[in-house]
Design brief:
Blueprint: H1 3-7, H2 15-34, H3 38-53, H4 61-82, E1 103-109, E2 118-124, E3 127-133, E4 146-153, E5 156-161
Parallel strand pairs: 3-5
Antiparallel strand pairs: 1-2, 1-4, 2-3, 4-5
Helix pairs in contact: 2-3, 3-4
Length: 162
Amino acid sequence: MDLSSVFQMGPFGINAFWIWFIFGLLLLGVEIFIGTQWLLWSAAAAGVVAVVCLTGLPFGLFFQALTFAILSVVMGVLTPKFLKVASHSPDVNDPHRRMVGKQAEILSGFEPVVGGERTGRVVFDGVEWPAVLNEVSEGHLAVNDRVLIERVHEGRIFVKRI
């Protein structure tokens, strides 16, 4: 059996299917380790080529490779357009996510300022953070008072009164 017959699918041969299927699984395995999402689309393209090889159409090595390349590039380029991830959505890998819903202690600030945010400093788990009070309510927050952390964004903690 020569190389061209392996990639030239006949109605009863499944060699090309298994080659593309295993190649797609290998790409998927590498993608799991590096996590870039770019190889995900190449793995999907290899899967599509594998399925097309099962149809029994005369789909030679050149057309298999061409289909794989075109699908990989098109899916990779169009992905950011159709799968936009909202920047405010929580990320599983975000180390600050564990802070949300916990209490922090006020170190300073949060005095009412005309036309601006009420900013101050808080301490959480022994680390001092710049903070923004999300409420526009009257009243004074004293040093050592506790506040609730609502979110962490761009190195600042957004808090509210307890």
